[in-house]
Design brief:
Belongs to the inward rectifier-type potassium channel (TC 1.A.2.1) family. This is Potassium inwardly rectifying channel subfamily J member 9. It is a multi-pass membrane protein. The protein is an alpha+beta fold. The protein contains 10 helices and 21 strands. The strands form 7 sheets. Strands 8, 9, 10, 14 and 17 form a 5-stranded mixed β-sheet that branches. Strands 11, 12, 13, 15 and 16 form a 5-stranded antiparallel β-sheet that branches. Strands 3-4-7 form a 3-stranded antiparallel β-sheet, with no helix packed on it. A hairpin with a 2-residue loop joins strand 1 and strand 2. The protein is elongated, with a radius of gyration of 34 Å.
Length: 442
């Protein structure tokens, strides 16, 4: 039995079988990009490897890159992206090697001219006074490039080759200073650490808001200096198979968090709840509470803005797996009015509480809780491909079918009209099969 069991490894060129013992150390290959995974079982479900970590780091490693010379074509960015220990090492080596090379050149000039042999001759004019060996030549190189100028070792006007070398060292020394100091300044002023004080809620929630199911998560800023021109966007990442049979393991779909209405532009002074209305254009349109237990997806949230102190662009990222989306929950309030000011309690930033929420999908909920009239039939028309109007080429039989379906939908919504509790449309059962049965009847 153990020999017959097989797992699957997904590749862009097809699907291959691997022994089941390798399932927990599988890899998804996407060309030259390698997404490593190491799965563990939690609550009888396997924890999938994230595409984006909770702290915003992208869990992607690039391999088989043969054109590494491209990194050197953008040397400045390459140096800035290096870790601090490598930056300090390169910073130290750049100056030390420059001093050593030019110290050697000063020593060679003195050796070729014979200054080292005539250093005790009173009437001999050397190229550099008081240069009697490599150590003193090295010290003179440091004094020249750093413009210390102690005055003990000094170049004379009888040495044209020394004057030329002095000009070259002064120019190259300025270039090294500009490059090294520039890299260190940019690295110190990078806004990456500013993102450490931008918070995302640990969980996302799905709950009704203004009569519609919505996906929500919370963002906040711990600093008193604000993020200018803050904006938020979100992506849904999951596998997809095209009509031609092509398998896309990490297909990205936009999640509308207010792009049309301008709600994606944030005034992030206090924590805000980001809301995505699950409508007919949403990729979560057909997701129900039961379906959430079987779906596999990842929602990536991206918060961008300019740092108020420096004007540099800052980006913070986080992600939510399907196991981190709570159905039928809302976030606890964090803002209270004190004596003359508002106070934010970050202790309850991640906390949620349960609310009455139908277990059906937003698609089914729209069928149950919205009156189906010829002028308001957009969710159903989008779902089943119904025409926008009956005059657009519908024959008599199709018109009868549409009328029959409308009457059936009205019968299902009869318990909703005139009721104070909108959940009555799902038979008053927010966790039972009410919406699923309604979908089957439709």
């Amino acid at each position: 039995m153990a020999d017959d069991s097989r797992g699957k490894m997904v590749m862009t060129s097809g699907v291959c079988k691997v022994p089941s013992g390798q399932e927990q150390h599988g890899k998804v290959f996407t060309g030259a990009t390698r997404l490593c995974s190491r799965a563990k079982k939690t609550n009888d479900r396997q924890r999938r490897q994230r595409y984006v970590q909770k702290d915003g780091k992208c869990n992607v490693q690039h391999g088989n890159m043969r054109e590494t010379y491209r990194y050197f074509s953008d040397l400045f960015t390459t140096l800035v992206d290096l870790k601090w220990r490598f930056n300090l090492l390169i910073f130290t080596l750049a100056y030390t090697l420059t001093w050593l090379i030019f110290g050697l050149l000063w020593w060679l000039i003195a050796y070729v001219r014979g200054d080292l042999e005539h250093r005790d001759t009173p009437d001999w004019t050397p190229c550099v006074k008081n240069l009697d060996g490599f150590i003193t030549a090295f010290l003179f190189s440091i004094e020249t490039e750093t413009t210390i100028g102690y005055g003990y070792r000094v170049i004379t006007d009888r040495c044209p080759e020394g004057i030329t070398l002095l000009l070259i060292q002064a120019i190259l020394g300025s270039i090294v200073n500009a490059l090294m100091v520039g890299c260190m300044f940019v690295k110190i002023s990078q806004p990456k650490k500013r993102a450490e004080t931008l918070m995302f809620s640990k969980r996302a929630v799905i709950a009704p808001r203004d009569g519609r199911l919505c996906l929500m998560f919370r963002v906040g800023d711990l600093r008193n200096s604000h993020i200018v021109e803050a904006s938020i966007r979100a992506k849904l990442i999951r596998s997809k198979q095209t009509q031609e049979g092509e398998f896309i393991p990490l297909h990205q779909t936009d999640i509308n968090v207010g792009l049309d209405s301008g709600d994606d532009r944030l005034f992030l002074v206090s924590p805000l709840i980001i809301c995505h209305e699950i409508d007919a254009k949403s990729p979560l349109w057909e997701l129900s509470k039961e379906g959430l237990l079987h779906e596999q997806f990842e929602i990536v949230a991206i918060l961008e803005g300019m740092v108020e102190a420096t004007g540099m662009t800052c980006q913070a990222r986080s992600s939510y797996l399907e196991t981190e989306v709570l159905w039928g929950h809302r976030f606890m309030p964090v803002l209270t009015l004190e004596d003359g000011f508002y106070e934010v309690d970050y202790e309850t930033f991640h906390e949620t509480y349960e609310v009455a929420t139908p277990a059906c999908s937003a698609c089914e909920f729209a069928l149950l809780c919205e009156p189906m009239t010829p002028s308001a039939r957009s969710p159903v028309a989008h779902l089943d491909g119904w025409p926008e109007s009956r005059e657009e080429g519908t024959n008599e039989a199709e018109t009868k079918r549409l009328t029959s379906d409308e009457e059936q939908a009205k019968n299902m919504t009869s318990g909703v009209e005139g009721s104070q509790d909108w959940t009555a449309g799902c038979n008053g059962d927010i966790s039972g099969p009410g919406c699923n049965e309604a979908e089957a009847s439709v």
